[in-house]
């Protein structure tokens, strides 16, 4: 009895310690996701006869080259256009203010007094501009963010060089009789995570390119910023696509009011093509998640882990879904009444024979 209570206390203490270091665990999981993605590329090189060390070197070199090209060719115009976008935000609020005041004059019985409405818009304008500017500055210059990024990169490289060793260390956390089964679940988790990551890359490229071409046809200014934000924010389901449409709608309102409806229609069509045709085709329903489950997971991980939890909510949910299906459903619940069924079957066979 004393041993059980001690074991229970140790279990509670372990959960408490894990909760206190949850941010570090989330960084480790981020490294696992990146290492899984890079390892899939390494395996492609190894299939054509390239040795492991050379395959890793080629993979890292290719990623470094792509990063340099991205920073050199895309980041400077993106920063310039993003700064222009921030400069246009006050003008958008003033344009909206004038439209609302004009609408007030046409419908005086349904809208509040002009003075109160004007005061409200004037108060919201600097606040919104300051929030957007501070968020961009904080995200780009925070020392803590750079430190976390460095930790993730180092852990990713360590796991990529020798993934089998880290896998064996993790498997030792399970009882000896369950390690083979845990290894199978890890393989399924890796496959699901890889399928999700490959599908998300294709989806984000499609969203970014389609949004950029559509906004270019509509002649909405700052196309590069809108296209990149649409592609990157697509990693955050449900919330990301809505957030990516805010700035194009604001700029369209400033440019020509009729473009607002056109931009909303374009984004609606693109998101529906991605959700109902492209995503099921690319992922082949391997990591299909119910929309309510996805949204609930986003709120849970965002509340528990902050912004990084919101970004990683979907891969965390994919891995959790795999373990729940394999351990809870298949290994526990599906076998719950199996001994009784086997016993009843044996008794029935004895009676009939």
Automatic annotation (TrEMBL):
Family statement drawn from the similarity comment of this UniProt entry: Belongs to the autoinducer-2 exporter (AI-2E) (TC 2.A.86) family.
Lineage: Bacteria, Bacillati, Cyanobacteriota, Cyanophyceae, Spirulinales
Cellular component annotations (GO), alphabetically ordered: membrane
InterPro entries xrefs: AI-2E-like (IPR002549)
Keywords, sorted A to Z: Membrane, Transmembrane, Transmembrane helix
Organism annotation: Lusitaniella coriacea LEGE 07157
Compartments where found: Membrane
Pfam families assigned to the protein according to its UniProt record, in alphabetical order: AI-2E_transport
Topology versus the membrane: Multi-pass membrane protein
Top-rank taxon: Bacteria
Signal peptide feature range: none
Entry annotated with the keyword Transmembrane: yes
Biological-process GO terms, alphabetical: transmembrane transport
Transmembrane segments: 24-42, 54-75, 135-161, 191-210, 290-314
Name of the molecule in the record: AI-2E family transporter
């Amino acid at each position: 009895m004393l041993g059980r209570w001690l074991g229970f206390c140790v279990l509670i203490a372990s959960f408490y310690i894990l909760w206190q270091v949850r941010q570090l665990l989330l960084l480790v999981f981020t490294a696992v996701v990146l290492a899984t993605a890079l390892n899939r590329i390494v395996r492609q090189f190894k299939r054509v006869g390239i040795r492991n060390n050379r395959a890793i070197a080629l993979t890292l070199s290719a990623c470094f080259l792509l990063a340099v090209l991205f920073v050199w060719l895309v980041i400077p115009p993106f920063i310039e256009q993003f700064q222009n976008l921030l400069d246009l935000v006050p003008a958008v609020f003033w344009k909206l203010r004038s439209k609302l005041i004009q609408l007030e004059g046409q419908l005086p019985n349904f809208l509040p007094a002009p003075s109160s409405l004007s005061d409200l818009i004037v108060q919201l304008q600097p606040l919104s501009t300051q929030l957007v500017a501070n968020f961009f500055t904080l995200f780009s210059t925070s020392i803590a963010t750079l430190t976390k990024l460095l930790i993730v990169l180092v852990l990713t490289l360590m796991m990529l060089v020798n993934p089998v060793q880290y896998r064996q260390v993790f498997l030792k956390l399970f009882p000896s009789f369950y390690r083979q089964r845990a290894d199978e679940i890890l393989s399924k988790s890796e496959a699901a995570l890889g399928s999700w990551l490959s599908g998300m890359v294709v989806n984000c490229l499609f969203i970014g390119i389609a949004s950029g071409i559509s906004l270019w046809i509509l002649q909405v200014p700052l196309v590069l910023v809108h296209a990149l934000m649409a592609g990157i924010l697509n990693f955050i389901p449900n919330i990301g696509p809505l957030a990516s449409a805010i700035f194009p709608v604001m700029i369209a309102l400033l440019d020509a009011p009729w473009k607002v409806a056109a931009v909303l229609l374009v984004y609606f069509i693109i998101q529906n093509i991605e959700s109902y045709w492209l995503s099921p085709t690319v992922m082949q329903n391997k990591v299909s998640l119910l929309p309510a489950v996805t949204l609930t997971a986003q709120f849970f991980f965002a509340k528990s882990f902050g912004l990084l939890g919101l970004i990683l909510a979907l891969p965390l949910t994919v891995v959790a879904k795999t373990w729940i299906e394999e351990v809870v459903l298949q290994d526990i619940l599906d076998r719950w009444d199996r001994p009784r069924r086997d016993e009843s079957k044996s008794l029935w066979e004895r009676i009939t024979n």
